[in-house]
Model the fold of this input.
Amino acid sequence: MGDYPKILQTCSGETVRTQEEWERFRRPEILALFSAFIYGRQPFEGHIPVCFSYEGEETTPQGWRKRKIKVRAGAMDFCFYLVLPQYASNKKRVPILFYNMFGWDVERAVPLELVLERGYGVCAYPVKGVSPDSRDAFRTGIFQEAGRGDPFAWGEISAWAWGASRIMDYLQIVPEIRKDCVAVAGHSRGGKTALWEFASDQRFALCLSLNSGCGGAATSRDKNSDGESVASITSHIAHWFGDAFQNYAGKEHLLPVDQHMLLALGAPRPIYVVSGTEDFWADPEGELRSCRMAGEAYELYGKKGLVLEGELIPDKSYGDGTIGYRRRTGGHGTVPDDWNCFFDFADKYLKASE
Ligand code: GCU
Done:
């Protein structure tokens, strides 16, 4: 295993030993490094004026309430949906699964039946409303509105995370939801985004990363030949990242951070990571490596990171620590069991205090 930047060592070489030192010195440093070298820096709060409008609510055939909210950001707008059980009220508030979706159809993107049956409401976020996930991205959407900034120009993952934080601003005042119980989730590019959203906005209580791979949960160092590398991702999909990331193609050992530190930024909040045994492109070993290494930051809070001793058993959910992990048999997709294992993990944190 190569040399990894140390989670608990500051840029000036000091070792961080307490929560306070972590929060005051090392956490902000790591966050700034991810902004500068991986995802690019989001605009400062207030740089883009934002307001919200309620676009109506319908009752779905299943009897759920589906509400649409529009977010106006300068001269552009994007939207998101809330799907809530009928019973949700200010007296019976529900925890929320916040999902980054890349299409526009909520029913296709989120297993609504399963999620609502588990007692959660859904906040579905079509990220392409903020930026279209294309090579031309920087000429449209939020980039056209806000520019890219300099010198740490933001990429689309940061743009989507910025949009998520605006939605989170709104969720603070929705009477039917438990604003301190919002779990952010996504699959693949949506999983990369979920991890960055979780790191950069501490109002998210919990994170689920499904097959997020390179630029997500998988480390950039120690890539085997089947796994997506910094070189391949930045040659095809550079627009997801800040400009600096591509400089590290083939030079991952020079990166001042690696993705285990992205997970560490979550501490002490719970994270659940799902890989696939055959999802080689997303590098299941690299994802597990991050989960194992990120535990150091959780230990500062007296919490265990990942609890996984002995040989990994596929399909088993390792949910005893604050970092949970499951490696599903199969490739780059999701199955109902991924969700059920995740909710078993999440319930311990989000539903325990009901
Ligand atoms: C591509 C990309 C991955 C990404 C995936 C997805 O395969 O190389 O990094 O995770 O698309 O989002 O589906």
